[in-house]
């Protein structure tokens, strides 16, 4: 694998765990900072490669966990050599380059997977199963200003996760985009909001910030269909609730039960003559990054399409570019 910064180290940890279970052979790591690569290699008893070429020669597939500006050249080099590639998001910072990588992966019959890790979060898998007709979606992805270098704005850095999720979830073309954002601590936008309207009438309102005192990764969905529902979920905690109309067999909960066990129990209440249920969602907690890397390995072995293919990731990337275009076209304060 290439790059063992803060996220790359997590890739290395998980590859080592998967190797210990016999799922993959973990060949080694490479980083421009040789000492860092050597420390991680020693920790997991793998090789510290001196160059990208050496890493490629020893591997069938590689994770690219490096700054966005390096993604295209590294992925292109590896795909040209017939190597399977998992490249962290965003795939590139250029739409033409993203198309080139997709074309290269097809020509060389290689897997090209992009690291949109939230797609593997059990929260999203639960949403897909219950919110069958989303009508309104609201997302918040907030974090303190990162210590690492910010070579892209907050839309490509953070919001792109939610763009990928919403596009996969709604399954309808985007009809219109309205976006706003401002730089605070960097030259690119550090706070951004985008409102998307889809051809099927669904509306999504997305907010991202990297100048927040707190971390937040939440999604709220209003869904129509056979079971009208409101579902607020927390990606970080992998928990949340579903509010829906009660079934005939569900009796109203006592006030004492509501007070004592409200957080963990199913609560049935009367509102306007209707009985409304609020119940914790049944999510089995798992580490999304581990599920993502397993999907990459399994896709390589079966030569199947990964959950987040290059084509899928490019749809989110194109939408992110439109949002940033609108933000950068908006005149700043006089």
Describe this structure in words.
It is a single chain. It is globular, with a radius of gyration of 22 Å. It has 334 residues and is α/β, with parallel strands linked by helices. The strands form three sheets. The chain has a nine-stranded mixed sheet, with helices on one face. Strands 3-4-5 form a three-stranded parallel sheet, with helices on both faces. Strands 1-2 form a two-stranded parallel ribbon. 38% of the residues lie in helices and 25% in strands.
List the helices and strands and how they pair.
Layout: H1 6-20, E1 28-29, H2 34-44, E2 47-48, H3 52-57, E3 61-64, H4 68-80, E4 84-88, H5 95-107, E5 112-115, H6 122-130, E6 133-142, H7 154-170, E7 174-182, E8 191-198, E9 203-209, E10 216-224, E11 229-234, E12 239-245, H8 255-261, E13 267-271, E14 274-280, H9 288-302, H10 310-329
Parallel strand pairs: 1-2, 3-4, 4-5, 6-9
Antiparallel strand pairs: 6-10, 7-8, 8-9, 10-11, 11-12, 12-14, 13-14
